[in-house]
């Protein structure tokens, strides 16, 4: 905030309040992504274009078809978007689960990644305000993909990981992370260490 004048700093809480109010009134939207494109802030040199939310909703409806089956197998499902933008696909997936009567706050882990810091943090803000449990990774998903476990990704220096408040404030997710840590310790105590790869991919739904 030091780079902004005092009058400019006063605008930030007003903007945050407007975002909160917009998502409370209508959670079935990509508020920041739509605003970003309306203001023409995207980089056409990098092919940066956020898909309209209606399209993201249709994709989520198709991709989330077997979510309930995966939830029944383990109790929760991971939903991934490796080029998340402002999070439209993940927001749409959350709303698909809500309309289906599924408990998205405790049955879905939202995993996002984007190379653009501004886009990734827009995604983080919206997922956090909508109460989604998960995290957003700022890094090139091709060069620096997420490794480790779904609940406890292994960070590398080239990644910046932002965890949503719900992931740590929810007792349900807290117990799951604790249990996974116990299993991990037991596994490493009885076997030779293996290279870090993303585990539990069977519970993961990839939207993009």
Automatic annotation (TrEMBL):
| Gene3D superfamilies cross-referenced by the UniProt entry | Vaccinia Virus protein VP39 (3.40.50.150)
Q: Name one GO molecular function term.
A: DNA binding
Q: What is this protein called?
A: DNA methylase adenine-specific domain-containing protein
Q: Which organism is it from?
A: Butyricicoccus pullicaecorum
- Which residues, by range, are in coiled-coil regions? none
InterPro entries in the record: DNA_methylase_A-5, SAM-dependent_MTases_sf
Q: Give any Pfam family that matches.
A: N6_Mtase
- The transmembrane segments are none
Where in the numbering of this chain does the DNA methylase adenine-specific domain appear?
46-145
